[in-house]
């Protein structure tokens, strides 16, 4: 990971207030990085980050589609292309989502490409406060060529 990171921020509807509060708490740090967010979450996060005491801040926020409308898949493609350095996904463990398969695919890609992933406030705090976060840390991505070739030979 380079100094300036591209951080993906995603939240299910019931978790959006928690993610916005977390973003506000970590405003100084987040303003130093590029953010990629799905739909409504992104608009809420951008509005929160751009409110600074008496002065305007400019947040670098790229908005994708809403998760159920393809935003999770857009984000998954960015992960596969190596364009995301960390995924902060406040998901709702208490409510089934109509796009659960997309969420599972997104988390699978984050795991496959070894992208640091937080699924709640505690893990998000640990990721962004790690000494590795500010450096040039480069996650090791497992080589799957042998797996793919073995599968094709069957």
Query: β content, as a range?
Result: 15-25%
Number of helices: 7
What's the rounded overall pLDDT mean?
Answer: 89
**N-to-C CA distance:** 37 Å
Q: Spatial order of the strands in the main sheet? A: 5-2-1-6-7
Label the overall shape: globular
> Which sheet architecture does the biggest sheet show?
5 strands, parallel
Radius of gyration: 16 Å
Low-confidence stretches: none
Number of strands: 7
- The helix/strand class is alpha/beta
Q: Can you write the helix and strand succession as a string?
A: EHHEHEEEHEHEHH
Function: Catalyzes the formation of methylglyoxal from dihydroxyacetone phosphate.
Organism: Candidatus Tidjanibacter faecipullorum
Domain MGS-like: 1-154
Active site: 72
Q: How would you characterize this protein structure?
A:
The protein has helices at residues 16-25, 27-30, 39-49, 71-80, 100-112, 121-129, 145-153; strands at residues 6-11, 34-38, 51-52, 55-56, 60-64, 86-90, 117-118. The protein is α/β, with parallel strands linked by helices. The strands form two sheets. The protein has a five-stranded parallel beta sheet, sandwiched between helices.
TL;DR?
It catalyses: dihydroxyacetone phosphate = methylglyoxal + phosphate. The chain has helices at residues 16-25, 27-30, 39-49, 71-80, 100-112, 121-129, 145-153, and strands spanning 6-11, 34-38, 51-52, 55-56, 60-64, 86-90, 117-118.
């Amino acid at each position: 990971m380079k100094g300036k990171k591209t951080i993906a921020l995603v939240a299910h509807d019931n978790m959006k207030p928690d993610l916005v509060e977390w973003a506000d708490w970590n405003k100084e740090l987040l303003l130093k990085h590029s953010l990629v967010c799905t739909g409504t979450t992104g608009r809420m996060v951008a509005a929160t980050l751009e409110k600074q005491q008496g002065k305007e801040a400019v947040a670098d926020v790229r908005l994708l589609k809403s998760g159920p409308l393809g935003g999770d898949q857009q984000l998954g493609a960015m992960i596969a292309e190596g364009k995301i350095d960390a995924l902060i996904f406040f998901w709702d463990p208490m409510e089934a989502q109509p796009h659960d398969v997309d969420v599972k695919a997104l988390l699978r890609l984050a795991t496959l490409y070894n992208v640091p992933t937080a699924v709640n406030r505690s893990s998000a705090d640990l990721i962004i406060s790690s000494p590795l976060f500010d450096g040039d840390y480069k996650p090791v991505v497992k080589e799957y060529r042998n797996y793919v070739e073995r599968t094709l030979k069957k």
